[in-house]
Fold this sequence. Notes:
By secondary structure, the chain is an all-alpha fold. Helix content is 83%, strand content 0%.
Amino acid sequence: MPTNTFHAQDEIAREQDQHLKALKLIEEAFIEYQKTKDYAGFAQALQSRCLIYKHLFLLTNDRAFAVIARQDAKASLELAEFHDLQTVRGSSYFWLGEIEMLFEDFTQAVDYYRQALANYSGTDCEKGDYRYHLGEALYRSGDKEAGRRELEQGLKEIQDNGHEVDSFLAHVWESGAHLRMADLS
């Protein structure tokens, strides 16, 4: 959960598909995080902006948005490494994997998702979300058997540990895993 009011408002605007408003708010969040030297928050705000640009890419199919999203994900990882932010490192790799999926570089996405899992710190439920994304990348890269295994394991982790997170998130992750499994069948 964002520790900065602008960041929290950005996430609400993004979920309401108010992308321009979300971008304006996230810029304010960067300033506030820098003032307080909250580099974990700053790195997470970069991930939020990455997601805004990912959404814009998916809406417009304009590669420019995917390029910007990739740079935000890289910047988040660079901050995590420079400031030794273990709690942000795993999610930075996850977002890099997400963006490589947009570019259909499934091999690179597999690598990033594996690094995300290796550096993960959080709930087992969210770890299942990371794992099913790895499964999709593996499947799309040609390793269908390993992909199915990871998808199934990720789904099980989400289902077994849904109580750890807000029920809405658990349902979003579970339905996402089911959709990926159906799409890849």
